[in-house]
Automatic annotation (TrEMBL):
InterPro entries with a match to the protein in the record: Beta-barrel_OMP, OMP/PagP_B-barrel
Name assigned to this protein: Outer membrane protein beta-barrel domain-containing protein
Coiled-coil regions listed in the entry: none
Domain Outer membrane protein beta-barrel residue range list: 7-168
Keywords: Signal
Organism field: Haliangium ochraceum (strain DSM 14365 / JCM 11303 / SMP-2)
Signal peptide: 1-21
Origin organism lineage: Bacteria, Pseudomonadati, Myxococcota, Polyangia, Haliangiales
Top-level taxon of origin: Bacteria
Amino acid sequence: MRRLISLLSAGLCCGASAAHAEGYISAGVGSDAELSGSLGERFDAAGLPTGRLGVGFRMGSFALEAVGIGSEMGAAGGFTAAGVADQSVLSLGVDAKLFMDLFAGLEVYGRVGVHRTWLSADETFEDPDYEGRGAALGAGLQYRFDLAPALPAALWVDFDHRALTLESDERSSLSGESEVLTFGASIAL
């Protein structure tokens, strides 16, 4: 946590690049989520990749991004336990990012956000089995380049750590943490 605060502070003080504003879209594929707490006791995401889509607006070294994250989880232990079905996971939220230039288009960033998450055995999410709020912290490394004249793009790797509390009308609540490493790309709009 101290390192993330230091990174964000350093970015505010010395990471501001020339002021420019741009919208962007991003997409990434991540590792299976590492789960802990009662969430990890009940479910397992081993071997099930995570997808991340985002649309954001960046001005200088600061960005706001609306994100959607999707994945699948199975019952812990690799078998369907009584009352535990495989779950589709959907998380929607908003992240604030602070970038710091390193050199030659390479930059690091810190990220903080709030998200709403749903778990459902039904992929339509009309009647989710669990839902709740969470907070996300993250950090990443990004390489920015011009895909074409006046068309910035980026390749990135992002580490996501989120704390979740999920409620259910029919089951006991779940709380825990999730960690995912995602690789992706962004392109300016």
